[in-house]
Amino acid sequence: MTAKEKILYFIYLHRTGLTVTGLTLALVLFPLFEDNPYTLGLTNLIAIYVIIVVGLNLFIGYAGQISLGHAAFFGLGAYGSAIATVTFGLPAWPAMAGVALLVALVALLVGVPTLRLSGHYLAMATLGGNIVVHTVMLQWDQVTGGPSGFPGIPFLSIGGFVFDDEVRLHYLLWSFALLALLLALNLVRSGVGRGLAALAGDETAAAALGVDTRRAKIKVFVLSAVFASIAGSLFAHCYSFISPDSFDIFASTDLAIMVVVGGMGSIWGSLIGAGLLTLLPEWIDVFENYKDLVHGLVLVLILMFLPRGLMTGLYEMIRNRWVLKGQKNAAS
Amino acid sequence: MLHLDEVSKKFGGLPALDRVCFSVPRGRVTALIGPNGAGKSTLINCVTGVLEPTSGSIRFAAQQLVGRPPHAIARLGIARTFQNLKLFPRLSVLDNVLTGLTCEAGRSLTMAMLRLPYLRHRERQLKLRALEALDRFGLADKARLPVAVLAYGDKKRVELARACVAEPQLVLLDEPVAGLNADETAAIGEQLKRLRGAGQTLLLVEHDMELVMGIADQVVVLDSGRCIARGTPDEVRSNPLVLEAYLGQMEATA
Lengths: 332, 254
Fold this sequence. Notes:
The complex is a heterodimer. Chain A is built from 16 helices and two strands. By secondary structure, chain A is mostly helical. Chain A has a domain at 38-251. The longest helix of chain A is centred in the last third of the chain and has 27 residues, at 213-239. Chain B has two domains: 1-77 and 169-254, P-loop containing nucleotide triphosphate hydrolases (Rossmann fold); 88-168, no CATH class. Chain B has ten helices and ten strands. Chain B has a six-stranded mixed sheet with strand order 6-7-8-3-9-10, sandwiched between helices. Chain B has a four-stranded antiparallel sheet with strand order 2-1-4-5, covered by helices on one side. In chain B, helix 5 crosses helix 6. The radius of gyration of chain B is 19 Å and the shape is globular. Classes of the chains: A mainly alpha, B alpha/beta. Chain A binds chain B through residues 183-184, 186-187, 189-195, 197-198, 201-202, 204-213, 219-220, 223, 265, 308, 312, 316, 319-320, 323-324, 327, and chain B through 48-50, 69-72, 74-75, 79-80, 82, 86-91, 95, 98-109, 111-115, 119, 122-123, 126, 145-146, 148-149, 162. Chain B: InterPro entries: AAA+_ATPase, ABC_AA/LPS_Transport, ABC_transporter-like_ATP-bd, BCA_ABC_TP_C, P-loop_NTPase.
């Protein structure tokens, strides 16, 4: 091996670790170059979505299922933390963990019967679940504040350090987002992750390899609900005000679209999906008004032409062409 | 090692399997043959838990298989290949073979997410075993390729490697050479012979008579869901019932 080949091989071998390190470095330095609170507000929102989308991507891209109701778990996390800290005066961090546990329990109870379904039926069931949760948030005024929302949620703090401005929140939220990415990357590169990839590929084959398909689906569903719940808690403490609008079924479909744009089964794609869908309405004014229409169109086009999702689809297409070309060259 | 006793399977009253009895002895190659629609695939699906027999018992090393879900049967050490390939096209060849070691890779999501040192160590060992299996099946140079770009014959070999990598007690092969040309068939035949030499117990469902007669220790003939003959390849070849099942069919189609 020449020195150049050695370096390239090293990069290939440690590609995940190097990407994580690079991303961490970029995120640590980001506020030094960009101190516009508006921009930081946007990237912070992306961080929150990344946490949910990573979890949802495991469920859609790895367990091979569909959920159009994850905004419900996001909302349960947000309202759970709001009620626990404001109404009951509990400390924020333990409340966040407790709420995540409760949401895990809810996901388990919902998941056991619904995950017997698949395809359209599962999509409808999760959509229905979301509508129920959203309606409760709207109607149960005394507890949730109803349509006018829930104000006065305290900021998070560690010791005396309060996460109350955009730069501080940047570090807090992106730490969580990176942690979520890291955990998911570890999972998909493990034997358990391969079992899940098998499940997404073909259920009969996965079962023949010893994957308990029903159990695996429920586990990943609960895991993704916990990710969404934690993102919800962070969302509540970060904006100190929440309203049911953020957790309706359109929020859920947006989350699913983020997964599809990023690419099913692509953990890094989650970052791109969450980023693009959050930033596009900012870049293009038309988007603002016709957001749902454009999102629907994007979803349909991607599913028609790249059913594995935008990033994954393009990557696999290019990779397969490249490999085939290499084989042809070797043959001739 | 595998004992089928009076196994019947009815689809809406129509018998697909009718009181089938036979045993697969350890360390031997048992071939299951029969005309199209004889019930061979139904039988494989009953053994692997994809279908549940209407009646009868299937025992594997003293364990009753009837009523167990497919993953539980797989965990007992029964691996299989599929008639129409069921590979995972977006995974690499190596990862496809690694899925054959899922049972040994651990099941806890939490442990996997934390990537503890013991799991990393185990992962390295599994990878070595998968690479070894690829080497045995002549796929070592293709380990990093995505399965989607492989030729059909190579895909068949990947599936064979995936089924054998965990060194299961019993491997069910559902038409391993269907759709292959003569050279590829010969190559797979060589590999099956090598497996047999290593003492691997095989249950082979196949149409290719030459392959079956070349490697089987025991042949079981199914016709219309019934087991019509059982014996060594030579015995079966001269059995009048078998000739009738095959030749009668040929006359009918001629």
